[in-house]
Specification:
It is a multi-pass membrane protein. Its main location: membrane. It is found in: Cell membrane. It is a single chain. The protein is mainly alpha-helical. The protein folds into 2 domains: about 240 residues, no CATH class; about 220 residues, no CATH class. The protein is about 70% helix and about 0% strand. Strand 1 and strand 2 form a beta hairpin. Helix 5 packs antiparallel against helix 6 and helix 10 packs parallel to helix 17. The protein is globular, with a radius of gyration of 30 Å. The two termini are about 45 Å apart.
Length: about 575
């Protein structure tokens, strides 16, 4: 269908480059059309209903399903062919993570089906078709990513580019739909809290998309309607992870890779006890803070202020610990002399770009809070805790991004031949004798001579003398000096190795601690604990609607940043 990927001609690269540009433009237009439709539904545009948006999303999912089935069938027919693989893409832990989110997404779809059944008298049929289609789409997509996330496609490249980019933007639109639905629910809850607290200077109108009929089973309807919004954070993470994995697959189409051995880096709990303990303490305390916050906020003005103060103090403490841990890790890197791996790697490049890009969301919110504190005329006591919190959010992300990006670009430590095999050289009657026990044997003191009793490392002259047959006194003296010299150099090597192991252990504990801290900081905004909504200061300075728009645009990126950082830190822990 196309020229071979290995064609040296310059002209042969143009069709593929054009296919890449055309497919990317197709995907962007697909996304913009869906984004505009989503926005029109959100603002209650005339002539646009939820059924129109869902019909568009169903059509996109069906097209993707057809493409995935085509790809799976073609792969099954060519399963005996040897395919190139990108060993850096689609790590097993990433696949396990997306599978977990997919399972919870399937539960969400079942809740939506139950909700539709209970309100079937006044809901559009598309609201029942959508969760069924989405469930099938989720199952097949997870299977596809498990089997083919590492593929480097070299045939039907133009067609596959359009199929993969269609899948990328379909998942992005599903992510956008989830983010908007969840944000509207959070906004309604926030408005209800403002009504409770008696904010009369803010125009409050609830954005109600509830069905205009009674539920057939009240208890089930309440469970489904409330449960749906608690499951949305997992659905949102599922779609953004799927889109990133598919994007790497798209970037790998037609790519030429060097065939080299990839070292497996499994995750091990050994040596990270300290980091895990501190991280679990942070995780447990964060869950407790979130529960108390959600119970207390909006009950009364005093309880709301206490909840905000509690949240800020806890977050300041956690962020300060994370900054300290990140600085220690960067200082250790400065003390090491290890080169960076600058080879072409789409997965690693995307990780770095997502870290910096999504961090901009929380940076925007933090700078908005800082500006509000500076410009506000009245400052309730709890708002002053917002200042160090916002500053630490900016600094912590800056330090953590440096640590993660440098960690994923550092070359894995390679064992030198001189380390693998220590050569003990003795001189015997003018000839050189090289004894080469393994490093592990030498380190454990088990490398012995022929009788298996005397370690050659510290008694190298003995081995030499046995083979020597009884040399002169001068030879024995020379061998003794050589043995002393080798013993000193070996002890120096062991000392350096011990220092390296200690540094590595500290880095692994730091990565484990930051991993759990990022999971902890993902929980509050994902489940409705959002002080940017509730402290009221920014809304007074910027206005209610402008600030709410900023929060709704920036918060999804801030939430994704924490989950993506946790995934990247897991990889760092495996590599260290």
């Amino acid at each position: 269908m196309e020229k071979g990927a290995g064609s040296p001609s310059v002209g042969g690269s143009y069709p593929q480059k054009n296919a890449e540009i055309l497919s990317s433009q197709y995907g962007i237009n697909l996304f913009l059309a869906g984004l505009l439709l989503t926005f029109a539904w959100a603002v209650h545009a005339v002539g646009i209903s939820k059924s129109h948006l869902l019909s568009y999303l169903i059509t996109l999912m069906l097209i993707q399903l057809l493409w995935m089935l085509w790809y799976l069938c073609r792969s099954c027919m060519q399963r005996r062919l040897i395919r190139d693989k990108d060993t850096h893409a689609g790590a097993r832990w990433l696949k396990c993570g997306i599978t977990l989110f997919a399972v919870i997404t399937l539960i969400l779809d079942s809740f939506k089906i139950g909700y539709y059944v209970d309100f079937s008298n006044c809901l559009s049929p598309t609201e029942g078709i959508f969760p069924v289609t989405h469930a099938v789409h989720t199952i097949l997509q997870v299977y596809f990513l498990w089997c083919h996330a590492k593929d480097i496609i070299q045939s039907f490249k133009t067609l596959e580019r359009f199929g993969v980019i269609h899948s990328v933007f379909t998942n992005l639109l599903l992510w956008t739909n989830g983010v908007l639905t969840e944000s509207k629910h959070q906004l309604n809850e926030h408005k209800e809290r403002l009504i409770t607290l008696g904010f009369g200077n803010i125009t409050i109108v609830l954005d109600d998309h509830a069905p205009q009929c009674n539920c057939t089973t009240t208890t089930l309807c309440s469970i489904f309607s409330q449960g749906i919004y608690y499951l949305y954070p997992f659905n949102i993470e599922y779609h953004i992870l799927a889109s990133t994995m598919l994007y790497v697959l798209w970037k790998n189409i037609g790519r030429k890779v060097e065939h080299h051995q990839q070292h497996k880096t499994p995750f091990k709990f050994h040596g990270i006890t300290v980091g895990m303990i501190f991280g679990l303490i942070v995780l447990t305390s964060t869950i407790a803070i979130v529960v108390v916050y959600l119970i207390q906020i909006g009950r009364s003005k005093i309880k709301s202020e206490l909840a905000l103060t509690m949240f800020y103090l806890h977050a300041i403490f956690v962020l300060a610990l994370m900054c300290t841990a990140g600085i220690v890790a960067l200082l250790i890197y400065r003390l090491e002399d290890r080169s960076l791996d600058n080879s072409k790697n789409p997965a690693r490049k995307l990780d770095a770009e997502l870290l910096v890009g999504t961090a901009a969301g929380s940076w925007l919110l933090s700078w908005g809070s800082i500006l509000a504190i500076i410009c506000a005329q009245a400052h309730p006591k709890y708002t002053w805790y917002n200042l160090p919190y916002s500053v630490l959010v900016i600094i912590e992300k800056y330090i953590q991004n440096l640590f993660i990006i440098e960690s994923i670009h550092r070359e894995q430590e390679k064992v030198n031949d001189d380390i693998k095999t220590l050569r003990i050289v003795t001189i015997s009657r003018g000839s050189t004798l090289s004894l080469t026990p393994s490093y592990k044997e030498i380190y454990n003191g088990r490398a012995a001579c022929d009788n298996g009793e005397v370690p050659c490392l510290f008694k190298g002259s003995i081995c030499g003398r046995e083979n020597d047959g009884g040399g002169g006194a001068k030879e024995e003296t020379g061998q003794d000096k050589s043995s002393v010299m080798h013993s000193a150099s070996d002890l120096s090597f062991y000392s350096r190795n011990s220092v390296t192991n200690n540094k590595r252990r500290i880095l692994k504990n730091i990565a484990a601690f930051l991993f759990l801290c990022n999971l902890s900081l993902w929980i509050p905004p994902a489940f409705g604990c959002r002080p940017e909504y509730d402290n009221g200061l920014e809304e007074i300075v910027f206005g209610f609607e402008p600030w709410i728009i900023v929060v709704n645009l920036a918060m999804p990126f801030s939430i994704f940043y924490r989950m993506h950082s946790a995934a990247s830190l897991f990889e760092v822990n495996c590599k260290t």
